[in-house]
Amino acid sequence: MLTSYTPGIECAKELDQKDPLAHFRNKFHIPKNADGEEWLYFTGNSLGLQPKQTKNHLQQELDDWANLGVEGHFEAKNPWMPYHEFLTESMAEIVGAKPIEVVIMNTLTTNLHLMMVSFYQPTKTKFKIVIESDAFPSDRYAVETQLQFHGFDPTESLIEWLPRKGETLLNIDDLESLLEMQGDEIALLLIGGVNYYTGQSLDLKKIAELGHQKGCKVGIDLAHGVGNIQPNLHESGVDFAAWCTYKYMNSGPGSLGGIFVHERYAHDTSLKRFAGWWSQNKATRFDMRQPLDIIPGAEGWQLSNPPILSMAAIKASLELFNEVGMDALRKKSIQLTGYLEYLVLELKNDRISIITPKDPNQRGCQLSIQVKNADKSLHEKLTQAHVITDWRTPDVIRCAPVPFYNSFEDVYRMVELLKLILNA
Fold first, then answer.
1. How far apart are CA 56 and CA 386, in angstroms?
2. For residue 2, what pLDDT is reported?
């Protein structure tokens, strides 16, 4: 593929012709306007598009439910009892983990709370929690209420890792300084691996090293990272991570999330946790009178039997990830965002700028376009033109060309429409 870009549509067409993943676009439903023209869809960072094979996966489970009733737990084509196990190896591959470290369960914020039950164990002197300053609101609310649950005042116990004055992005040196000053009082770092607002991808291994040096537990919210970057969770050394699957993982609105718990805790039954019957030893799970015997690994944090229809949608998406692999997706992602960045900068318009890091290793699919004197009108006009991005207050249009289904021509056409609106 090309490693340099030129302004005209010929460049986009050449990039698409040489793209080995171009045919995967046909495996997704692309929304269309009333005239049957495909939208320019750049919000896979909010809700991924539906794989065409998802319907068949869901229909299989509906048919088995209709034909087998409760016996589907054991007799379905994909038996429901162990259904979550069908997803584990693929999910572990995507996040760079061992299968024992990963399980699909619950939703993101529920999982963050469950992880904090185990990994936020405050004392009278070591009780503070660090988040990035512009963390996703749900993370902030989860941390605030955890602090309150333990009897601490969030205004004193919640520490923000801030960008430097006049800057937008986080600097790892500032986290190190923060830990040097307050590390003896900090119990947990809960950091978004890819910031939802700026699109900045952070060095998880460095964050884990800095936190562990001060005796802090380190957790990562990978909502905007899973299926986007390659977080290499096992190697990073973070204690835990949690994510959703409806963004880059294309599993449908509100679908299940997942967790990672590092292998070093796999057999640690002394960790406090909230348990349910799916935390129980599989051999004795249905012997209802047995005492709790926690399953080793991430499975030991499960609560309930798996919601099959959501997992069927995840299974459909994971099959596509298995087919293409994260290495190839990441390679195309770097090209797509590089091309988008090039075209936006070529506009030479003082009203817009890109706040996402220029270094491809510090970002994923998303570029955040900051709008000077923002009033949301630019985003609204893009939407009216069926360019689907999303707006984040106070002044950012988030635009995520997803390597599975976005083409280089999509990117070109989007920027041409942006240029037309700006000039108007």
1. 28
2. 52
